[in-house]
Amino acid sequence: MIEFWYEFASTYSYPAAMRIERLAADRGVAVAWRPFLLGPLFHEQQGLNDSPFNAFPVKGDYMWRDLERVCADSGLPLRHPSQFPRNSLLAARVAIVGLEDGWTPAFSRAVYQANFVDDQDIGSPEVLAPLIAAVGAGPEHVLAAAQSDPIKARLKDHVRMAKERGLFGAPSFLTADGELFWGNDRLEQALDWAVRHQSREHA
């Protein structure tokens, strides 16, 4: 099993979210989707109130060009969002709601499509409602649940867990033996590590 920690505003989480289930299935590794928020970690760990890619423009320019190459290599469309980073709080809460019923992966991929391909405001209930409906859930019910205290608390728990696990960015992958891998370009390595760990467990 591998934990997939991702943030909807995170650029490199987009290709990771689109690739992880296929690659994990090929290796027989289960994926636990862990939506969380990077903002609190950036603020606490680095004193940032914005994305590092905005705080350091030269780094941001490189990232967008690199992401173009990464997505092209993976056959993924990409459109530079007109707003970056977008508010991902509501989308993350909705993804938490879906964990019980199993539609979080499909919903999450749809949110990345909306943000990084269709340039839609993923912080808007009007944008999220059809994405919720498309995965077979009821938009009104889900959006109401997303604003409930238990779901808000669970997302805060995810942020706390991410901090306790030593995460500092997204996407991050955590294997069952506690090994941490950071970045879309470490996805295959993380999955291979998880396979080796599973093999040792069953040896």
Short description:
This protein has 203 residues and is an alpha+beta fold.
Overview of the structural elements:
There is one protein chain. The chain has 203 residues and is α+β, with helices and mostly antiparallel strands. The protein has a four-stranded mixed sheet, with helices on both faces. It is globular and about 45 Å long. It has a single domain, classed as 3-Layer(aba) Sandwich (Glutaredoxin). 58% of the residues lie in helices and 8% in strands. The mean pLDDT is 93.
Q: What features would you highlight for this structure?
A:
Glutaredoxin, alpha+beta, 203 residues, single chain
Write the layout of secondary structure elements.
Layout: E1 2-6, H1 13-27, E2 31-35, H2 39-46, H3 52-55, H4 57-74, H5 89-98, H6 104-116, H7 125-134, H8 139-146, H9 149-164, E3 172-175, E4 180-182, H10 187-202
Parallel strand pairs: 1-2
Antiparallel strand pairs: 1-3, 3-4
Helix pairs in contact: 1-6, 1-10, 5-6, 5-8, 5-9, 6-7, 7-8
